[in-house]
Design a protein that fits this description.
42% of the residues lie in helices and 22% in strands. By secondary structure, the chain is α+β, with helices and mostly antiparallel strands. The protein folds into two domains: 43 residues; 149 residues, Heat Shock Protein 90, CATH 3.30.565.
Length: 204
């Protein structure tokens, strides 16, 4: 608003107006994504919320998400990997949204020459999907709060104009809807791993 008001306060060139419109359009997109995220979180908290589960090949789901981000990863000079096989009863749209949030975040904070690995592992206790990166890592004092809405640590990992502090909160809500949980572990300077843990009853 300040930028628009200053621009309108005096005579400007067409180039000045174009730059302000481009900046405004970028901000509109960010606000739109934030509103969408808030609406998702609000709906997820309704007790009657039901999810549509399907039998999924988890490896295939991981490969699909990686394929979507492959061009961006190549542009950033980051290698993507996928391993493991398992079946899971889950909502495919919500699962891909959770994985996309994690992979997008990992890409923003993994330096050129780094790597991100997606893996699935099933046991008698749970099925776990992990997204591990070789990025800058997160200081220990921030870890307990990272799934809180709007929480953004001061570390470079979460200092991004693209972030709203809602991505991990959405991941947590998706896991709660599936009766599971999301865990995060990180070492500053070495990387971060986020693990999605689903009840074993939904996996094979």
């Amino acid at each position: 608003m300040d930028e628009a008001e200053i621009t309108l306060s005096g005579a400007r060139t067409s180039e000045d107006y174009r730059l302000v419109l481009e900046s405004s359009l970028e901000e509109y997109g960010r606000l739109s994504r934030m509103i969408d995220s808030l609406l998702f979180l609000a709906r997820a908290e309704i007790a009657q919320t039901c999810i549509e589960r399907s039998r999924l090949d988890v490896h295939g789901e991981l490969e699909a998400v990686l394929a979507f981000y492959e061009a961006l990863a190549d542009d950033h000079g980051v290698a993507l990997f996928c391993q493991g096989e398992a079946g899971l009863d889950a909502d495919p749209i919500l699962l891909r949204r959770a994985l996309s949030n994690l992979l997008s975040n990992a890409l923003r904070h993994t330096p050129r020459g780094g790597q991100i690995a997606l893996a699935v592992q099933a046991s008698d206790v749970a099925l776990e999907i992990s997204v591990a990166d070789s990025g800058c890592g997160i200081a220990p004092e921030h870890l307990p709060k990272l799934f809180d809405r709007f929480y953004r640590a001061d570390a470079a990992r979460v200092h991004s104009a693209e972030g709203s502090g809602l991505g991990l909160a959405i991941v947590k809500s998706i896991m709660v809807l599936h009766g599971g949980s999301a865990l995060i572990a990180s070492t500053p300077g070495k990387g971060t791993t986020v693990t999605l843990r689903f009840p074993a009853v939904n996996a094979t």
